[in-house]
Amino acid sequence: MDITLSGSVDRNKSIEDLEGERWPEPPQGGAGLVRSVHELRRRAVKDLSVAELRRLIGRNVGLRRLLPVALDHLRGTAPQEAATGWYDDDLLSAVLSRGESVWREDPRLARHLDETARMLTGLSPYIRREVEGFRAALADLLMP
Questions:
Q1: Which phi and psi (to 5°) does residue 30 adopt?
Q2: Contact 91, 53 (CB under 8 A)
Q3: Which residue, 20, 65, 84, 131, has fewest beta-carbon neighbours within 10 Å?
Q4: DSSP state at residue 85
Q5: Do residues 74 and 95 touch, judged by C-beta distance below 8 A?
Q6: For residue 103, is pLDDT > 70?
Q7: How far is CA 17 from CA 11, 22, 37, 59, 65, in A?
Q8: CA dist., res. 111 & res. 144, Å (int)
Q9: Is residue 2's pLDDT more than 60?
Q10: Between the CA of residue 67 and those of 19, 104, 143, what are the distances in Å?
Q11: In whole angstroms, how large is the CA radius of gyration of the chain?
Q12: At a CB cut-off of 8 Å and minimum separation 6, what does 6 contact?
């Protein structure tokens, strides 16, 4: 299945623009992570690195817009990663570890992730456990 999920996401816009919600400035002297997340929400989606996508997704920021982008990235890199037998699993872990309710809101995203995970080889035992947990929690959505 070769589906692009993020086609409706205007990557020239930031999460703030896409959501129409401006966050206040982070508190002075606030944690670096908080400042970073605030800054990343203001950056155009197309300018976010994979690590920055992972950071935002890991903090449940902009999921409606960023999960499709991340899932398209994971699907696009899966064949190459599977061929090498090694997978950099930070983004995959961030995506897999989102709460069950996120996937139940849009089951096609869950099915897309499941299909992508099936393409991958050489996953670490930790990620394999996350994949198994994801599949167990959403078995009713992932059935054909």
A1: -70, 165
A2: yes
A3: 20
A4: T
A5: yes
A6: yes
A7: 10, 8, 15, 18, 11
A8: 9
A9: no
A10: 14, 13, 21
A11: 16
A12: 68, 69, 71, 72
Q: DSSP for 29-63?
A: T--HHHHHHHHHHTSBGGG--HHHHHHHHHTT-SH
Helices (H), the chain: 15-19, 32-41, 50-58, 63-84, 90-96, 100-105, 107-119, 125-137, 139-142
In sequence order, the β-bridge partners of residue 14 are 44
Which among 55, 119, 37, 51 has a CA at the least distance from the CA of 88? 51
> Locate tokens 């995203």: which residue?
109
Percent of the chain with pLDDT over 90: 69
Residues making up the chain, counted from first to last: 144
Backbone angles phi and psi of 44, in degrees to 5: -55, 140
Question: Identity (one letter) of the amino acid at 117?
Answer: A
**In angstroms, rounded to a whole number, what is the distance separating the alpha carbons of residues 50 and 33?**
16
Q: What is the pLDDT of residues 43-99, one digit of tens each?
A: 999 999 999 999 999 999 999 999 999 999 999 988 887 677 666 688 999 999 999
